[in-house]
Amino acid sequence: MAEAPGETGRGLNAALTHRRGALAIEFEASLPAAGVTALFGPSGAGKTSCLRMIAGLDRATIGRLSFGGETWQDSERRVFVPPHRRRIGYVAQAPSLFEHLDVAGNLDFAWYRAGRPARLDREGLINQFGVRALMPRRVGGLSGGERQRVAFVRALLSDPVLLLLDEPLAGLDGGAREDLLGRLEGLHARLAAPMIYVSHAIDEVARLADHIVLLDAGRVVGAGPLNAVVTRLDLPPALIEAAGAVIDGVVTAHDAADHLTELSFDGGVLLVPRERASVGERLRCRIAARDVVLTTERQAATSALNQLACRVVAVGDADHPSQCLVQLDAGGAPLLARITRRSARALDLAPGRAVWAQVKAVALGA
């Protein structure tokens, strides 16, 4: 299993290059030894190519790659550990289940091949992903969401040291996507192996990731803790829609009459649409920069239920000359607002300026 976070060199360290047609992929990154790292970027940025390079599926890749202190590839020394010896669990957008086996047979194949590891809670995983009722069914008759849930359990039962997920929710409809996303959230806290999650959907990244690597045109353009990266002022134009903040809070109350949930965090209290989480449970909430309105005074009459006292940290350019990005500090929690330059001048925004950030509850989804 993965080493404890914080151990130098025990995560994944990569300096790999690969050419895919006219696009040269250059993946240079050091990823943590625990938690969920998202590879995020627009379509065509090279996210899947990076995942395949890590898995050892593209032999034309050159460079160096190590994980957990073990060298998986070193082109200069002619070292290349084949994919099956890297102990990687790989779940793609279209899961490759064994069509000639039923669901139970698919899961048994992975579990027996891994030596029936006692540390894995086989029955718990089957229950957690809701596949027990599917066990006798042939995989050809499963829905897309059912196939993907089976693929996740099979990957976990292979006892991987690293999980690679390539846009696993992209082909699912709204209900199946939300269901599986919720199950992955539940898995996050108990996952022993680190996970690298490819997506171009920022809402998925906000709910799952601890760490993020931004990719654009085949290159890493940013990496680090999730909130530190998505609240930066220098995001490339192709990634500007990801600008915002991820609030990690605790559910403190539910309003049954108005179907709202109260989420407390370092910067105050947010009201969000009603969530199923119990009081005391931790939840994440993404506040997109475009959904933040700034005022210099607290408003007495406004439809925005959320008003947070903030201090301006910095003001930078957005991707359109009429707009700017405003970095904010809300009691120690970073926020980001995207407003017009005219508004920034009218409010006389500058570092240190006290402002109020207004956010509509309907814009938030914890």
Explain this structure to me?
- With 366 residues, the protein is of the alpha+beta class.
- 20% of the residues lie in helices and 36% in strands.
- It has 8 helices and 20 strands.
- It has helices spanning 47-55, 103-113, 122-128, 144-157, 174-188, 202-208, 226-230, 341-346; strands spanning 12-20, 23-31, 36-40, 62-67, 70-74, 79-80, 88-91, 162-166, 195-199, 211-216, 219-225, 244-255, 260-265, 268-273, 282-288, 292-295, 306-317, 323-330, 333-340, 354-359.
- The protein has a 6-stranded mixed beta sheet with strand order 7-8-9-3-10-11, with helices on both faces.
- Helix 2 runs parallel beside helix 4.
- The longest helix is centred in the middle third of the chain and has 15 residues, at 174-188.
- The chain is globular and about 65 Å long.
- It starts with 11 loop residues before the first strand and ends in a 7-residue tail after the last strand.
- 40% of the residues are buried.
- Residues 1-8 have low confidence and may be disordered.
Whole-number mean pLDDT: 91
| Termini gap | 31 Å
User: Mind telling me the C-alpha Rg?
Assistant: 22 Å
Largest sheet: 6 strands, mixed
What order do the SSEs take from the amino end to the carboxyl end, as H and E? EEEHEEEEHHHEHEHEEHEEEEEEEEHE
Number of helical regions: 8
Helix content: 10-25%
Low-confidence stretches: 1-8
Structural class: alpha+beta
Strand content: 35-45%
Approximate shape: globular
The total strand number stands at 20
Strand order of the largest sheet: 7-8-9-3-10-11
